[in-house]
Amino acid sequence: MSASEKAKAKSEQAAGRAKETVGRSVGNERLIAEGRAEQTRGDARQAKEKLKDTGRG
Predict the structure, then answer these.
(1) pLDDT of residue 5
(2) pLDDT (tens digit per residue) in 22-40
(3) How far is CA 18 from CA 6, 38, 51, 54, in A?
(4) Model-level pTM greater than 0.85?
(5) Is 2 exposed, middle or buried (0-12, 13-18, 19+ CB in 10 A)?
(6) 29-51: burial string, b at 16+ Cβ within 10 Å, e else
(7) Structure-derived torsion over alpha carbons of residues 22, 25, 29, 34, reported in degrees to the nearest 10
């Protein structure tokens, strides 16, 4: 996994968790949904990079 892509995936996941937490604390459903979506994008990016690494091995 390239370092920059790994960092992007981790930052997307962390930002998504933060958005979801803030959304829950203020009762904002849209913010919760955005946070979940951002986490999912980070998970997908991470999975894609892992697949690339597996193919190289």
Answers:
(1) 86
(2) 999 999 999 999 999 999 9
(3) 18, 10, 27, 30
(4) no
(5) exposed
(6) eebbebbeebbebbeebbeebee
(7) 10
